[in-house]
């Protein structure tokens, strides 16, 4: 993890996994109590540091729970109103961090009003700080040495600011040092970033340049990358939030939108994270990246359905039959709309029970289902595979399915689901089922990583936007060493990358 100074608030940089740091409020500042010094304590000037950052009530309860002063059940029943009280990710983070996990950039300070680490060139310049570079790469090396069977690397990073420069430099190091597969998820925020000393128009231009330069360089160093956003458009103008059926969220609320993206990641990565997955190279990270990056198409799109639209008394075969001719997933990649032809995809489903697959042959209600070709399918993966083979033309789908649903509990935003979603995550119109529990307890989901010629439309739109910008009008890029000739060459590489998605490369 790499973040800016001031983000961690109460969390020490060494994490809090193994020991509880000293509370600064318990350290005496009275000179008369300092007895280990030989000089005259009356002449010592005492400088009192700022008060420690206040903890979010959820973090305070987690601390009390870890010290044994409160019960876990009591904390889980509280309503923390996260949507309105969360300011940063640290406020709702449940994870405890290892001493090697957190890397802080001292040169820039976190601010909610404007971003200081603004350009991809600033991020690349940070890599020239050998202390920062050595510490980060050394920690990566220690984690790799502890790994019994490293498949590769999965990286999540902000795409529109200077973090993209750090990500590319780190990715280049990982490729040179280890040569493993790498799957990247560049994230574009649901509302436009404001950069230091820049108005809205200039901030939009900076964001477009950062994104274009990132997308142009990633194919050289990574195996596959999947841009993520809850917005339909994210190049110059950010707008048109994606509409997920049976989910109600505030498109400008980072706490809620990050939960949707996290749910996608938790589901889409099951293919190479399962221990009991079927043998074969296709089940590993390298196999997934190879399947989806043919013809140099190293950018893929994200599709997600959450919750899965299965009724509480419905069988999967009937649910899929009703979806004929309709897209099952909603795109979570901006400026992309994957249609139903020539799609290569990796699909992961969770929480679809085997006993809800179809009616048993002996049941009277099975007569209608038995005439369907899908009735011959014996498990969830097989039925989803058959569904995609019928609904997508000239396509290939790799389907992974697990029975366990996503567990919904704090700090997840339980308010996301509308009233049609029952406590078990399935759709219901029964008022008694809706009122049986206050919140949804578990939820089914399906995530797809898709490669298609339609992705070229988004790349072309990005190239068109960045071509309109004159680099000399934004001197902050040149101040960090970006020459206009190099800039034009990189933008041209983006157009060449887009050509991999033209129809003459189609399967």
Any key phrases for this structure?
single chain; three-stranded parallel β-sheet; alpha/beta; 507 residues; 17 helices; five-stranded mixed β-sheet
Structure description:
The protein has a 5-stranded mixed sheet, sandwiched between helices. The chain has a 3-stranded parallel sheet with strand order 3-4-5. The protein is built from 17 helices and 14 strands. The mean pLDDT is 86. Helix 6 packs parallel to helix 7 (200-221), helix 7 crosses helix 17 and helix 15 runs antiparallel to helix 17 (484-498). The protein has helices spanning 57-66, 72-76, 82-85, 120-126, 130-146, 163-177, 200-221, 254-268, 270-273, 285-292, 316-322, 367-370, 380-391, 431-435, 455-467, 475-479, 484-498, and strands at 2-5, 103-109, 152-158, 181-187, 224-225, 231-233, 239-241, 301-305, 330-331, 344-350, 396-402, 406-407, 442-443, 445-451. Among the domains are: 1-69 and 81-100, no CATH class; 302-453, no CATH class. The protein is globular, with a radius of gyration of 25 Å. The chain has 507 residues and is α/β, with parallel strands linked by helices.
Provide a concise account of the structure shown:
This protein is of the alpha/beta class and 507 residues long. It is 33% helix and 13% strand. Among the domains are: 1-69 and 81-100, no CATH class; 302-453, no CATH class.
> Using only CA atoms, what is the Rg?
25 Å
Broad shape: globular
The number of helices is 17
Straight-line N-to-C gap: 38 Å
| Major sheet: arrangement of strands | 9-8-14-10-11
Biggest beta sheet attributes: 5 strands, mixed
In percent, how much strand structure appears in the residues?
5-15%
Average pLDDT across residues? 86
Low-confidence stretches: none
How many distinct beta strands? Answer: 14
Q: What is the SS-derived class?
A: alpha/beta
Task: Give the proportion of residues in helices.
Answer: 25-40%
Protein name: DML1/Misato tubulin domain-containing protein
GO cellular component, one term: mitochondrion
Region (Disordered): 50-78
Organism: Anopheles farauti
